[in-house]
Amino acid sequence: MTVSTTDAGPISASLDLGVIGNCSIAALIDRRARIVWGCFPRFDRDPVFCALIDNQIADGDAMPRKGVFTIELVGMTLCEQTYLDNTAILSSVLSDDQGNAIEILDFAPRFVRYERFFRPPQLVRRVRRISGRPRIRVVIKPCLGLGQEPDEITRGSNHVRFVGAVQTIRLTTDAPISYVVDGVPFAVDRPFSFFIGSDEALRAEIEETSREFLDKTTDYWRGWVRSLSLPFEYQREVIRAAITLKLCAFEETGAIVAALTTSIPEAPGTQRNWDYRFCWLRDAYFVVHALNRLGTTRTMEDYLGFISNIVDSFTESGAEHLPPLYPITRGGTLDEFEAPHLSGYRGHQPVRFGNGAATQIQNDGYGAVVLAATHSFFDQRLIQPGKEALFGQLERMGELAITCFDKPDAGPWELREKEAVHSFSSVMCWAACDRLARIAGTLGRADRKAYWKGEAKRLKAVILDQIWNEEKGHLVSTFGGADLDATLLLIAELGFLKADDPRFVATVEAIGRDLTRGDLLLRYATQDDFGFMHTGFLICAFWYVDALHAIGRREEAKALFGRILKRRNSFGLLSEDADLQSGELWGNFPQTYSHVGMINSAMRLSRNWEEAF
């Protein structure tokens, strides 16, 4: 996929972005090959490049004032961008009307060295001349400490250090340092490389190291993609989604973040601006399901390890409620605060760091943990010691699920001012009991199997009585309620009802009637703490596709899936939300949930390889 854009003066921020990374850090690159987002030394730290959410443009200039790293071709009229096939390496070809052109290759090094993964908190930008005598201007304006400019800038023979109170960033390059620091244009008469990252000296020749890192990183990604289990159809789409999902994994601990950004609003002017650079337990089942289907067992096992460590810590703490989200290292704070000095994405404030949802009661988490951990007991590819011990800890999750299945909570959409007994939370509590019965069976624990099977049956009877609305003729989103929400589309997938159960079919039809807006879906059509929904939540559209397929409307599901794929940006990526009319992407980016939904739907809809030819 190749995309192009012209240089047409000042432009506003956009989510038409590519992503690069190495499972330690990641960065977002816009349609002019500018790095506009990137946190160091890991996803959840301060954004060193923050122009995406602080995009005030200097008077008469298309260049953001700060938080950006650009390599600008003087006189550029065209920028064509594409990923190198089956990699996370982005190529940007910049050209002008005089026959001058350069290529920028952007990547974060990732490969095996000394029998372990080498994934430094470092980005590499490699520039080469394609034609003519091109001249470039390098502008690097990192921020250190939530949008603050460096306290000091120092330089050496081949490096520049940007010094702040919290951290120091180092740029190492074989380009003329004075030209880089002063923003003076210079000719690209040979390849140049730029290493930006932690304050560590590069102890090797720059050009040679750049070539080596590029070659080995290319080989890594192509080898990783070669190992994927892919559907016959939608292969390019699934490969890009799988790479993006991998880039959202923090390999050190196994955590997978919901997205790489903070405070991209779900819709303009709504103040639904949240920090998504953390790990939500709710995502666990869907993420593990996608990873399993892709065959990425190492990433899946690392993620399950992260979940298991959460179970260990929770059990030891004696806490009464399981937090719905965690930092990617499980330490530190998730305290939410605003940064008013940052202007916000397209001026939309507030800009938030941390996430107050961590203190909410969300009762679906117990089921999410058990559902994810169930893979450890059935997937023979995984090396999971201590299964009996883990089962004992999961039973603690199940007992809490029994206690709270009919209690009010903030629900799957994290309402901040309203509580109710949410159907999805209750069904997830049932799922915890149901899966514990299955786990007990595989462990030969007949007594515990009978216990959990009995509890699952008891919960199911209560839940069905409360969430079936006879007058409406469909399932509803809260106990005794009358409204719909999109999580009801998951009832069959979770195994609570069969897909051909008339109650589920009627609910899918009702959601199609009341929550669809064109090809997109609302999470719900009722008013919440911030008003009504103005964008479609993309994962819900994929859930609807899956539900249509499950109830037998397969051609309709496949056609809808094809139209939803057109909502992806120029690089094949998705955010959280899309405008109901224009389709413009909103919400944090790239959104793990959306890409997981895409993968799972593609796997369901594709012909299998045996049928293909």
Structure explained in plain terms:
This protein has two domains: 203 residues, Beta-galactosidase, Chain A, domain 5; 376 residues, Alpha/alpha barrel (Glycosyltransferase), CATH 1.50.10. A hairpin with a 5-residue loop joins strand 30 and strand 31. With 613 residues, the protein is α+β, with helices and mostly antiparallel strands. It contains 14 helices and 31 strands. Helix 4 packs antiparallel against helix 5 and helix 6 runs antiparallel to helix 7. 51% of the residues are buried. The longest helix has 22 residues. The strands form ten sheets. A nine-stranded antiparallel sheet has the order 1-7-8-9-12-18-16-15-14, covered by helices on one side. One of its GO terms (biological process) is carbohydrate metabolic process. One of its GO terms (molecular function) is hydrolase activity, hydrolyzing O-glycosyl compounds. It comes from Bosea vaviloviae.
Count of domain modules? 2
CATH topology heading of the largest domain: Glycosyltransferase
The tally of beta strands, per DSSP, is 31
**Poorly predicted ranges:** none
The tally of helices reads 14
**Straight-line N-to-C gap:** 26 Å
Q: What is the gyration radius calculated from CA atoms?
A: 25 Å
Pfam family, one: Glyco_hydro_15
Organism: Bosea vaviloviae
GO molecular function: hydrolase activity, hydrolyzing O-glycosyl compounds
Protein name: Glucoamylase
